[in-house]
């Protein structure tokens, strides 16, 4: 008995040290349960004649016991639900035990065994309150055809909608503000990153990090980057093109749709800013007919072509 | 070419029609240019030319051609080897060890050197002897075929190679080469008669890598592979007679685009740029249509080519049937700002195709006609394309430019006449360069010359009407095209040359009007008119008393006599009056039509017939005058300063419909910072119908007015609420709308307004915090995602606005600028600049406009003391390999730094770049910027001004820039700005500080100046009687005479000069002639060649003509004997000069001193003597003219 108490005490101290870490009420509840189980295991061991036990084995046994009891509970609940009840009855337990291969008949005798130890009732601990996940909206009451014992409907946000108390940001100003600062942040982060990873120049001799300038690097063909629109711009242009098709009185970007028909016939005096974009289809067809000396095939050299004299 | 069957007799130049007499004793009819090898790696070119030439004088024994840089291997005439001499005095203008460094001297010598090779004076660098076997042939005036083999190695001018240093074949690397240069520069890449007046037909052949395309003038006849199939030869034929100076070439791996509207037009661009090319050229056909319509004449050539190349010499260069453009003119459809600029370039080049390429000029002094006509029809195109407002605005701008330039420098002369040698006054004595040749002109002068030319054409139009004007053009063109289709009638071809007199004759024939006074005023004379006007209203007589004064004594001005239009807007309407401006009448009485009574509710009629309601409360109750304008049509090249009351200017701004009037009133209102002016400007700003450029300038005026009114200003900063209303969101006024640039007018306004706002200052002379925050917000909320146009120019202007807001830092005892003491506002600005500049590296903007603005802004911060002044950043951006706009911006900052910090190191760095940079445009631009923003000027003490710098610059203009006319003239400009015309003040005084009369000079000369005595004596020897024998061959200019005798008279006297050379051409009677030795080498000046024309027996080679010095009895150095071409001053001048006083005053008077006061004069005079003695030191060396880079002093020459 004393030994058992000792082990129980040891276990208790162990859990105590654990409890230092967590002071959560739910944890406390579970720890108290477990402590009770350990006391049970210890007393059973004492009954069985052990004088002492290693902590690890007590733990293992506790674990086994807990699993066993849990399984009984779970199974019993299944049986009860199987028969469309919500509360398990004794028979459910019995069936369970039978199912688990336990000889139920031995139970009363075991309960009345003489050498059994009586342990004190576990301290009353409050069932932890499961925090309400979201107290969003009112749960719906059951409609009349659903018996009242059925579980309540879940919170409406889980299956109907989520009411939020703040208006979604549809305010133009805020959006612009957000877009602007987001872009700015991205740009700054990006350029800072580039500056950090590459060579930099600085306007201040004493400080090279506050305003780091990415070092100027000459290009081999500088006009290409300077003249060709960047990919971003190209993409943008395509987007705006499709979205603003109706606005295209302006032809700045219609170069690609030059009409060939205008040229063949008398060139009409289209104004600077108005060309007809619709005739672009005919282009390829006519290009073959164009007689331009630069499009002609290159001739093979004549066999006896008189070469200009060299020296 | 049917060269045969032409009767030689008909080609006698004496019979030349329409007064065109070729200065050359032969007529070129056809030229073949064949370049059969182009090596991009080594940047070399090998080829030959063949000129078909008909002599026009029986005794032609020498043929002079132009050639620079070319290495000439061999010359054959009709398959006979011919001796030749190559001498280019422009390689090194002054051959001096002297420390003289006098720009006046240099300019004269340079003009003389250019004359000495000027094809229009019958000269050339290359002189070929006609082999004696052919003399008989020549006497019969039969055809000569001159075949010249040449090569070109690493040309520094004329042909420009662009070879990017990346991996791959030349074609893959985008390597290309093109011809470039200013005026007649064709001689830089093949031997030719580099004159606009020598027309001939052409056959051009270029063998290039198979992956490349050679674009040249005329029709591409065929393209043929070479035998190894690795190269191909482009054969071009140009059957329209064309001057060599209009021949061009571009070779590169070009992408080819046949114009979809006009299949005979082909466009070329560098790889990858095809989409841009398509967009950029899609407009060209409309320009064609326009010109053909107004000129009622087809485009003269059978094809047209545009080539867009990198590292362009100039943005636009027009040549016969092709134009070479800078590739930076290409743009995509998203670019707004560049579009009109590029279109203008296209239109300009096309106008020059008609006038400049197809129609060429007789002589340099006729250049103004070509530039004038092409500029004028280009203006008509502008009017049609961009509207009358834009056109008038442009005319006004051009007028202001020319007026400012002429007032600053003292005049631009369109039609310089150098005849006779009688006039004492050099037509351009106020300038530091000669205007006798295009190659001696300052680039800025030439730009202004073109500007004035087209303005004068417009004046002619005003006089004779546009209809007649166009008829004249049509006549010129149809005459020319008739002439061009003539098979070979050389004298007909001169119809394709325009001359001033021919043009004027056409005008009088067509219009029947006499425009002689106009021509005399604006063409034969330089200067503009400066009017001062004021008025008073005489209520009793109901008369407007207008007083118009002129200033015609300041430099660059002239007196105007003749009609002048004045427009008076009265209550009852607008009335035009034509006043006669006469000698002594200053006051003009103009009767008014309306009484001063106010007709309530009555609308006021404007000039254009519109009737408007006006609030008349502001005006003077006694006067019916609303506003007065002098010369509203800009029919005089003038500047008008007119005084009228502020309310009149305000009425003019609000109600006058002419943009020029609005612009003028905006300028005037700057002086009237009143609430009424503010209101008028604000109203204009808001008025959408108003021309956008007027609104833009109203922004800046408003900023100025606000600053003047700062203590009384009420309400938010100027323009802020306006901008908010126009461009910001209704719901949140601090946030700008997302960009939508569909309306260009508001786009330009949106760009400009913040820039102007940033100029606002509060009472502490700081930019108001509110404004800075506003601009920063504009940048922050800028959102271009929904815009179909690029916002790069807009963002660039926002940075400009930030820069404008910067004010000088408050500095406590000159502390060093560090980050810690950075002003918080500046910190914000710097943050934006850093971010923008860094983003450019990742997402570059079109033409890197943002980088350019950032660099400028950084320089502003440096200059204002917020950031330590340091050129390192700019220098890194100025390196070769950055986009040219960036480089120029960075260089500008370095130039500015050089000036502000007086940094010798940076100045050296810039000078090195001028010498070594691969891009000619950048070299030119640095000189230009240094001239505009000089580190010091002639009257300034500066540590930078030292002897080494003088030497360096002298070297630069003397010999370092001989490959590029424009660059050399730029160097001359810089030298002038830094040191002035006379001897730079920082040079040590010459050894003798004596004050002497010239006559006494000899007595005190120390032994080191002996050559001077020689010179003097020699000059004496140049007496008229010996003159004919003294004709210099290669170098007609003064050389040997005393510097004092180098007078513009002598060096400018082209007439006499020509006669010299004609003299020289007479067949020598001495048997020595036949000793011509076949040119065994390309070396120049081999004595044997020089039998010369001297009839005096002499054992010495005569090319050197040292004969002149025989009489001196002095010893001469062998060098001098060998090399010295005698001064070829014309006879008439000599006669005159010999009687003239030798006093050095003489010199001064002619050149630059005559306006100085006596006192100063004396001082100068003293100074001058020192110069003289110095100058004389070097005279013996003045004339060594190395040919193809070889020094004359090579030993072979001295024996």
TrEMBL record, chain A:
Q: Where is this region: Disordered?
A: 1-29, 262-311
Listed A to Z, the keywords are:
Cytoplasm, Developmental protein, Differentiation, Nucleus, Transcription, Transcription regulation
One MF term in the entry's GO annotations: protein heterodimerization activity
Residue stretches making up the Bromodomain associated domain: 29-106
Principal location: cytoplasm
Supply one GO CC term from the record. Answer: perinuclear region of cytoplasm
Q: Which GO terms describe its biological process?
A: cell differentiation; DNA-templated transcription open complex formation; inner cell mass cell proliferation; maintenance of protein location in nucleus; mRNA transcription by RNA polymerase II; positive regulation of transcription initiation by RNA polymerase II; regulation of fat cell differentiation; RNA polymerase II preinitiation complex assembly
Cell compartments where the protein resides? Cytoplasm; Nucleus
What the entry lists under Gene3D superfamilies is as follows: Histone, subunit A
Indicate, by first and last residue, each region the UniProt record lists as having compositional bias (Basic residues).
Answer: 297-311
Q: Which Pfam families match?
A: Bromo_TP, TAF8_C
Source species, domain of life: Eukaryota
- Please note every region of biased composition (Polar residues): 270-283
Which SMART domains does its entry note?
A: BTP (SM00576)
Q: Which family does it belong to?
A: Belongs to the TAF8 family.
Summarize the subunit comment: Component of the TFIID basal transcription factor complex, composed of TATA-box-binding protein TBP, and a number of TBP-associated factors (TAFs), including TAF1, TAF2, TAF3, TAF4, TAF5, TAF6, TAF7, TAF8, TAF9, TAF10, TAF11, TAF12 and TAF13. Interacts with TBP, TAF1, TAF6, TAF10, TAF11 and TAF13. Component also of a small TAF complex (SMAT) containing TAF8, TAF10 and SUPT7L. Forms a heterodimer with TAF10. Interaction with TAF10 is mediated mainly via its histone fold domain while interaction with SUPT7L is via its C-terminal region.
Tell me the protein's name. Answer: Transcription initiation factor TFIID subunit 8
UniProtKB/TrEMBL annotation, chain B:
**KW Disulfide bond (keyword) present:** no
Compositional bias annotation for Basic residues:
1144-1171
Enumerate the Pfam families for this protein. TAF2_3rd (PF25316), TPR_TAF2_C (PF25577)
Q: Which domain of life is it from?
A: Eukaryota
| InterPro entries xrefs | Aminopeptidase_N-like_N_sf (IPR042097), ARM-type_fold (IPR016024), Ig-like_TAF2 (IPR057345), Peptidase_M4/M1_CTD_sf (IPR027268), TAF2 (IPR037813), TPR_TAF2_C (IPR057991)
Q: Which UniProt keywords apply?
A: Nucleus, Transcription, Transcription regulation
Q: Name one GO cellular component term.
A: transcription factor TFIID complex
Compartments annotated for it: namely: Nucleus
Q: Where is this region: Disordered?
A: 1-23, 1067-1121, 1136-1199
One of the record's GO molecular function terms: chromatin binding
Q: What are its GO biological-process terms?
A: RNA polymerase II preinitiation complex assembly
Q: What does this protein do?
A: The TFIID basal transcription factor complex plays a major role in the initiation of RNA polymerase II (Pol II)-dependent transcription. TFIID recognizes and binds promoters with or without a TATA box via its subunit TBP, a TATA-box-binding protein, and promotes assembly of the pre-initiation complex (PIC). The TFIID complex consists of TBP and TBP-associated factors (TAFs), including TAF1, TAF2, TAF3, TAF4, TAF5, TAF6, TAF7, TAF8, TAF9, TAF10, TAF11, TAF12 and TAF13. TAF2 forms a promoter DNA binding subcomplex of TFIID, together with TAF7 and TAF1.
User: What does the subunit section of this Swiss-Prot or TrEMBL entry state?
Assistant: Component of the TFIID basal transcription factor complex, composed of TATA-box-binding protein TBP, and a number of TBP-associated factors (TAFs), including TAF1, TAF2, TAF3, TAF4, TAF5, TAF6, TAF7, TAF8, TAF9, TAF10, TAF11, TAF12 and TAF13. Interacts with TAF2C1. Component of the TFTC-HAT complex.
Know the name of this protein?
A: Transcription initiation factor TFIID subunit 2
Gene of origin? Answer: TAF2
């Amino acid at each position: 008995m004393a030994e058992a108490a000792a082990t129980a005490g040891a276990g208790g101290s162990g859990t105590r040290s654990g409890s230092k870490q967590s002071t959560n009420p739910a944890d406390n509840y579970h720890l108290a349960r477990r402590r009770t189980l350990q006391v049970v295991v210890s007393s059973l061991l004492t009954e069985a004649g052990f004088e002492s036990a290693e902590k690890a084995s007590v733990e293992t046994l506790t674990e086994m016991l807990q699993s066993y009891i849990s399984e009984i509970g779970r199974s019993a609940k299944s049986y009860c639900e199987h028969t469309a009840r919500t509360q398990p009855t004794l028979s459910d337990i019995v069936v369970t035990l039978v199912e688990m291969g336990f000889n139920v008949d031995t139970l009363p005798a075991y309960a009345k065994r003489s050498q059994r130890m009586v342990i004190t009732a576990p301290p009353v601990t409050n069932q932890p309150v499961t925090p309400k996940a979201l107290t969003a909206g009112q749960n719906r009451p059951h409609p009349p055809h659903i018996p009242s014992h059925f579980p309540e409907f879940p919170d409406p946000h889980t299956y109907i909608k989520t009411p939020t108390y703040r208006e979604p940001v549809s305010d133009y100003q805020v959006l612009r503000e957000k877009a602007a600062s987001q872009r700015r942040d991205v740009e700054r982060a990006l350029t800072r990153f580039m500056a950090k990873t590459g060579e930099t120049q600085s306007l201040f001799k004493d400080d090279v990090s506050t305003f780091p300038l990415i070092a100027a690097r000459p290009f081999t063909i500088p006009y290409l980057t300077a003249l060709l629109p960047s990919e971003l711009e190209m993409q943008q242009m395509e987007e705006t093109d499709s979205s603003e098709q109706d606005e295209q009185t302006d032809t700045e970007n219609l170069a690609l749709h030059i009409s060939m028909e205008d040229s063949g016939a008398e060139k009409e005096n289209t104004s600077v800013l108005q060309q007809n974009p619709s005739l672009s289809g005919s282009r390829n067809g006519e290009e073959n007919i164009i007689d331009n000396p630069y499009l002609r095939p290159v001739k093979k050299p004549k066999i006896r072509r008189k070469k200009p004299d060299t020296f | 070419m049917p060269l045969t069957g032409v009767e030689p007799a008909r080609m006698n130049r004496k019979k030349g029609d329409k007064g065109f007499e070729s200065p050359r004793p032969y007529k070129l009819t056809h030229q073949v240019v064949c370049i059969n090898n182009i090596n991009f790696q080594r940047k070399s070119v090998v080829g030959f030319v063949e000129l078909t030439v008909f002599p026009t004088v029986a005794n032609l024994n020498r043929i002079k051609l132009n050639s620079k840089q070319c290495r000439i291997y061999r010359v054959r005439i009709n398959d006979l080897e011919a001796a030749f001499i190559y001498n280019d005095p422009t390689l090194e203008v002054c051959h001096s060890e002297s420390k003289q460094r006098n720009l006046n001297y240099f300019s004269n010598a340079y003009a003389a050197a250019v004359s000495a090779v000027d094809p229009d004076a019958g000269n050339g660098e290359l002189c070929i002897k006609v082999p004696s076997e052919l003399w008989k042939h020549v006497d019969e005036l039969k055809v000569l075929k001159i075949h010249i083999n040449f090569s070109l190695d690493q040309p520094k001018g004329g042909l420009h190679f662009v070879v990017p240093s990346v991996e791959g074949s030349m074609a893959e690397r985008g390597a290309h080469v093109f011809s470039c240069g200013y005026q007649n520069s064709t001689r830089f890449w093949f031997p030719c008669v580099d004159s606009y007046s020598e027309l001939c037909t052409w056959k051009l052949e270029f063998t290039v890598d198979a992956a490349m395309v050679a674009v040249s003038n005329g029709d591409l006849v065929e393209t043929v592979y070479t035998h190894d199939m690795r190269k191909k030869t482009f054969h071009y034929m140009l059957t329209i007679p064309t001057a060599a100076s209009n021949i061009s070439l571009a070779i590169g791996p070009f992408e080819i685009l046949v114009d979809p509207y006009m299949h005979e037009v082909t466009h070329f661009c560098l790889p990858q740029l095809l989409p841009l090319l398509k967009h950029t050229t899609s407009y060209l056909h409309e320009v064609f249509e326009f010109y053909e319509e107004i000129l009622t004449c087809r485009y003269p050539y059978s094809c047209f080519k545009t080539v867009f190349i990198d590292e362009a010499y100039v943005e636009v260069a027009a040549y016969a049937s092709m134009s070479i453009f800078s590739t930076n003119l290409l743009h995509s459809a998203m670019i707004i700002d560049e579009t009109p600029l590029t279109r203008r370039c296209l239109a300009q080049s096309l106008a020059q195709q008609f006038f400049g390429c197809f129609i060429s000029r007789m002589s340099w002094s006729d250049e103004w006609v070509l530039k004038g006509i092409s500029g004028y029809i280009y203006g008509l195109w502008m009017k049609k394309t961009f509207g009358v407002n834009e056109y008038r605005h442009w005319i006004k701008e051009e007028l202001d430019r020319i007026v400012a330039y002429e007032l600053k420098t003292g005049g631009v002369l369109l039609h310089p006449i150098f005849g006779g040698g009688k006039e004492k006054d050099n037509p351009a004595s106020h300038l530091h360069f000669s205007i006798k040749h295009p190659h001696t002109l300052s680039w800025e002068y030439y730009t202004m010359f073109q500007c004035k030319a087209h303005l004068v054409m417009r004046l002619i139009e005003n006089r004779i009407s546009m209809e007649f004007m166009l008829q004249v053009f049509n006549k010129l063109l149809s005459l020319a095209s008739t002439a061009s289709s003539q098979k070979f009638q050389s004298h007909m071809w001169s119809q394709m040359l325009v001359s001033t007199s021919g043009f004027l004759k056409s005008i009088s024939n067509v219009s029947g009007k006499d425009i002689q006074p106009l021509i005399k005023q604006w063409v034969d004379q330089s200067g503009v008119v400066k009017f001062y006007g004021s008025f008073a209203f005489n209520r009793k007589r109901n008369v407007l008393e207008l007083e118009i004064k002129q200033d015609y004594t300041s430099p660059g001005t002239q007196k105007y006599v003749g009609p002048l239009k004045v427009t008076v807007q009265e209550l009852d309407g607008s009335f035009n009056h034509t006043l006669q401006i006469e000698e002594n009448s200053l006051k003009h009485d103009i009767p008014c039509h309306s009484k001063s009574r106010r007709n309530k509710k009555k609308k006021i009629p404007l000039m254009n017939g519109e009737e408007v309601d006006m609030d008349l409360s502001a005006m003077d109750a006694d006067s019916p005058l609303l506003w007065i304008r002098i010369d509203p049509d800009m029919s005089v090249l003038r500047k008008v300063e007119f005084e009228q009351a502020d309310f009149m200017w305000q009425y003019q701004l609000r109600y006058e419909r002419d943009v020029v009037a609005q612009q003028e009133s905006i300028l005037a209102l700057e002086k009237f910072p009143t609430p009424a002016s503010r209101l008028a400007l604000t109203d204009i700003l808001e008025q959408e119908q108003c021309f956008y450029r007027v609104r833009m300038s109203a922004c800046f005026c408003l900023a100025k007015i606000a600053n003047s009114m700062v203590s009384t200003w009420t309400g938010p900063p100027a323009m802020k609420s306006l901008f908010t209303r126009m461009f910001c969101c209704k719901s949140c006024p601090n946030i700008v709308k997302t960009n939508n640039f569909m309306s260009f007018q508001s786009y330009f306004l949106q760009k400009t307004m913040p820039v102007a706002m940033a100029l606002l200052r509060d009472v502490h002379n700081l930019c108001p915090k509110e404004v800075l925050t506003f601009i920063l917000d504009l940048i922050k909320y800028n959102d271009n995602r929904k815009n179909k146009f690029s916002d790069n120019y807009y963002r660039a202007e926002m940075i400009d606005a930030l820069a404008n807001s910067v004010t000088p830092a408050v500095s406590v005892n000159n502390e060093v600028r560090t980050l810690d003491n950075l002003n918080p506002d500046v910190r914000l600005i710097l943050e934006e600049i850093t971010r923008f500049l860094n983003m450019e590296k990742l997402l570059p903007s079109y033409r890197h406009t943002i980088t350019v603005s950032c660099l400028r802004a950084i320089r502003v911060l440096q200059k204002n003391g917020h950031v330590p002044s340091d050129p390192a950043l700019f220098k890194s951006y100025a390196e070769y390999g950055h986009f040219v706009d960036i480089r120029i911006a960075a260089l500008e900052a370095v130039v500015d730094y050089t000036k502000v910090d007086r940094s010798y190191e940076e100045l050296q760095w810039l000078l090195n770049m001028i010498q070594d940079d691969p891009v000619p445009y950048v070299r030119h631009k640095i000189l230009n910027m240094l001239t505009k923003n000089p580190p010091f000027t002639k009257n300034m003490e500066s540590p930078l001004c030292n002897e080494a710098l003088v030497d360096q610059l002298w070297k630069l203009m003397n010999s370092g820039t001989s490959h590029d006319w424009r660059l050399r003239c730029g160097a001359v400009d810089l030298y002038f700005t830094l040191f002035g015309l006379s001897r730079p003040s920082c040079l040590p005084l010459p050894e003798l500080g004596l004050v002497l009369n010239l006559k006494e000079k000899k007595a005190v000369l120390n032994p080191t100046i002996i050559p001077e005595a020689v010179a003097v004596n020699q000059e004496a020897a140049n007496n008229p009687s010996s003159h004919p024998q003294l004709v210099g061959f290669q170098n007609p200019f003064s050389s040997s005479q005393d510097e004092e005798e180098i007078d513009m008279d002598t060096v400018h006297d082209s007439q006499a000069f020509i006669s010299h050379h004609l003299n020289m051409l007479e067949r020598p009677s001495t048997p020595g002639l036949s000793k011509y030795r076949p040119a065994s080498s390309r070396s120049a000046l081999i004595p044997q060649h020089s039998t010369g024309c001297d009839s005096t027996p002499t054992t010495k080679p005569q090319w050197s003509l040292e004969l002149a010095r025989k009489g001196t009895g002095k010893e001469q150095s062998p060098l001098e004997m060998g090399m010295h071409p005698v001064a070829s001053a014309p006879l008439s001048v000599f006669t005159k000069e010999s009687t003239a006083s030798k006093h050095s005053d003489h010199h001064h008077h002619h050149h630059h001193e005559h306006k100085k006061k006596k006192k100063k004069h004396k001082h100068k005079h003293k100074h001058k003597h020192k110069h003289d003695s110095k100058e004389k030191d070097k005279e013996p060396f003045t004339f060594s003219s190395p040919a193809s880079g070889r020094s004359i002093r090579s030993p072979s020459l001295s024996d």
